[in-house]
Specification:
The complex is a heterodimer of chains A (208) and B (82).
Chain A: H1 14-24, H2 28-50, H3 53-70, H4 80-98, H5 136-141, H6 144-154, H7 158-169, H8 174-181, H9 185-207
Helix pairs in contact in A: 2-3, 2-4, 2-7, 3-4, 4-8, 6-9, 7-9
Chain B: H1 6-11, H2 13-17, H3 23-34, H4 37-56, H5 63-81
Classes of the chains: A mainly alpha (208), B mainly alpha (82).
Bound molecules: zinc ion.
The site of zinc ion (ZN) has 6 residues of chain B, from helix 1 and helix 4.
C-alpha cells in the first residue's frame, strides 16, 4: 500500500481521481469516455507487440476487464492512463512470449533514413519541400493524410510505435512512457525522433 | 557555418519542437535556421508531422463495438461470479 494512503493529491491528476471514483461506483458513461480515450491506442500498441491485430484486440479486451476489476486498487503513483497502459503492455508482452515472439523496445542501431539527404559537410543536398499544401483545412477535409500517418505508425518497430502512440498521441509524460516500456529517457527520445522521421518521410512521399 | 550543420540540426529537431533543448543549444539551432531555408522547411515538416500524428490518434470507428464487447463480457463474468 502507498503510505500516503490517498490523502495528498498531486496537482494535475485530480481529474484522474474523479474518473477512478466514478469507475469504482460503476458509472457507465465514465467508463465509455475512458474507453474511447484509450482503446484504439491500446490496440495499436498491442498490435506492435503481438504482431497481430486480432490478438491485440483480445489482449486489449482482457486489459480493460482487468482495469475494471482492479480499479479499486489504483494508486496515485502513476496517472490512470499510465496504469492502464502498464497493464496492457505487460499483457501484450506475456502473450507475445507465450507465442514465442521476442519483443525488444531497443532504439536499435544508427538511423540512416536521411543519410542520403546530406553532403559530406552535413548540409542539405536538396532543400526539403515546404509542404505548403498541408493546411488544417485540407487535413480535416480528407482522411487520406491521416490514414497515411496511421499506416506509417503501424509500420514502425514495436518500441518506436509504442513511444509514438503513448507520447505523440496519448500525451503521456515522458517518465511514464519510460516506466511502461522499461526504457531510459534517452532511448525514448531517440525512438520518438526516429518514429517522427519515418512518418515525416511518408507524408513527404504523398506530397510529391 | 561556425555552429551546427544541417545534419546536426535535423538530429535535434524533435527536441527543439518539444521544447527539450537547453537554452543555448536552442539558440544555436535558431541562428542556423535564420540563414538556412532547408532546415527551416524541415523543422516545419517535423511540427506538421507532430500535429498530424496527434490528429491521427483521435478516436476510432471501431470503439463502440469493442466497448459493447467488453461490457457484455463483464456482465457475463459478473453473473458467473454471483
Ligand atoms: Zn541547415
Amino acid at each position: 500500500m502507498d503510505p500516503r494512503g490517498g490523502c495528498t493529491r498531486v496537482p494535475g491528476i485530480g481529474s484522474d481521481w474523479e474518473q477512478v471514483r466514478a469507475l469504482i461506483a460503476g458509472d457507465r458513461a465514465a467508463f465509455a469516455q475512458l474507453f474511447r480515450q484509450h482503446n484504439a491506442a491500446m490496440v495499436r500498441v498491442a498490435t506492435g507487440i503481438t504482431g497481430s491485430r486480432a490478438v491485440a484486440e483480445e489482449v486489449t479486451q482482457d486489459a480493460w476487464v482487468a482495469v475494471l476489476k482492479h480499479i479499486a486498487g489504483f494508486e496515485e503513483r502513476s496517472s490512470l492512463a499510465g496504469w492502464i497502459f502498464t497493464i496492457l503492455v505487460n499483457r501484450a508482452r506475456s502473450r507475445a512470449r507465450v507465442e514465442g515472439r521476442s519483443v525488444s523496445f531497443d532504439a536499435g542501431g544508427e538511423d540512416n533514413s536521411l543519410a542520403a539527404a546530406f553532403d559530406g559537410r552535413g548540409h542539405w543536398k536538396d532543400t526539403p519541400a515546404l509542404w505548403e499544401e498541408i493546411t488544417p483545412d485540407r487535413i480535416v477535409a480528407g482522411r487520406r493524410m491521416l490514414d497515411v500517418v496511421t499506416a506509417a505508425i503501424e509500420a514502425l518497430p514495436p518500441g518506436q510505435r509504442a513511444v509514438m502512440v503513448l507520447r505523440g498521441q496519448q500525451g503521456l509524460e515522458a517518465e511514464e512512457v519510460c516506466a511502461i516500456l522499461g526504457i531510459n529517457e534517452g532511448n525514448m527520445r531517440v525512438m520518438l525522433h526516429r518514429a517522427r522521421l519515418a512518418v515525416r518521410a511518408a507524408i513527404d512521399r504523398l506530397e510529391r | 557555418m561556425l555552429g551546427l550543420n544541417c545534419k546536426q540540426v535535423v538530429a535535434r529537431s524533435s527536441a527543439l519542437i518539444d521544447g527539450e533543448l537547453p537554452f543555448w543549444e536552442a539558440l544555436q539551432l535558431r541562428l542556423h535556421m535564420a540563414v538556412c531555408k532547408g532546415c527551416t522547411a524541415f523543422v516545419h515538416q517535423m511540427r506538421v508531422t507532430r500535429s498530424l500524428t496527434l490528429a491521427a490518434g483521435q478516436g476510432s470507428p471501431d470503439d463502440d463495438a469493442a466497448l459493447a464487447a467488453v461490457l457484455a463480457r463483464l456482465a457475463s463474468e459478473g453473473r458467473d461470479a454471483g
